[in-house]
Amino acid sequence: MNLQGIVSVAGKPGLWRALAQNKTGFVLESLDGKKTKLVVNLSTAKMAALDEITIFGNEDDIKLTDVLGRMKAAESVPDAKADGKAMREFFREVAPDHDEEKVYASDMKKILTWFHLLKEMPIFNEEAATAPAPEGEAEVTAAE
Q1: Which end of the chain is more exposed for a tag (fewer CB within 10 A), N or C?
Q2: 67 and 43 fall within a common domain
Q3: Taking a C-beta distance cutoff of 8 angstroms, is the pair 41, 51 a contact?
Q4: CA triplet 52, 75, 121: central angle to 5 degrees?
Q5: Is the pLDDT of residue 124 over 50?
Q6: 85 and 108 fall within a common domain
Q7: What are phi and psi for residue 44, nearest 5 degrees?
Q8: Parent domain of 36
Q9: Record's Gene3D superfamilies (predicted)?
């Protein structure tokens, strides 16, 4: 999944796509059907890129992209309005090593809401852009 350029803005519901950058911040567009535009000033607003978000884990933090990938492969994903027990059981499946004391029901609800918003979008099924190999390093193939 290619979540590059998709951000969450503190205090604003939903997810946003970064369209452009200016001196003081970003121009964002909502991912919902309304396509609302928003100018975010970096000195006053907090933004988090989805491909950089992690979830508290017992040993190491778990990348959100890994959890969303497991959610995509899951047979049934509960609605964000499901009760806390159902969400916790689901998260035990898709993120078995998450820290149950630090990952609150509100966090799980937010991730489920994001998943249901993203799953219908073409970018969710795209492969993430990988960094090109440095010049001079060619792939080695075995010749028999």
Answers
A1: C
A2: no
A3: no
A4: 50
A5: yes
A6: yes
A7: -115, -20
A8: 6-49
A9: 1.10.10.1650, 2.30.30.730
Q: Is residue 29 part of a domain?
A: yes
Q: What proportion of the chain, given as a percentage, has pLDDT over 70?
A: 87
Q: In the structure, what pLDDT confidence band is assigned to residue 143 with cuts at 50, 70 and 90? A: very low
Q: How far is CA 125 from the centre of its chain?
A: 13
Phi, psi of 78 (to 5 degrees): -65, 155
Task: Map 51-78 to HEC letters.
Answer: HHCEECECCCCEEHHHHHHHHHHCCCCC
Q: How far apart are CA 103 and CA 94, in angstroms?
A: 13
Residue 67: inside a domain = yes
**Alpha-carbon span 91 to 88, nearest angstrom:** 5
Helix (H, G, I), strand (E, B) or coil at 4: coil
What does the alpha-carbon distance between residue 54 and residue 95 come to, in Å, rounded to a whole number? 11
- In total, how many domains does the chain have? 2
- The pair of structure tokens assigned to 95 is 């993120």
Rounded-to-integer distance, Cα 1 and Cα 68, Å:
9
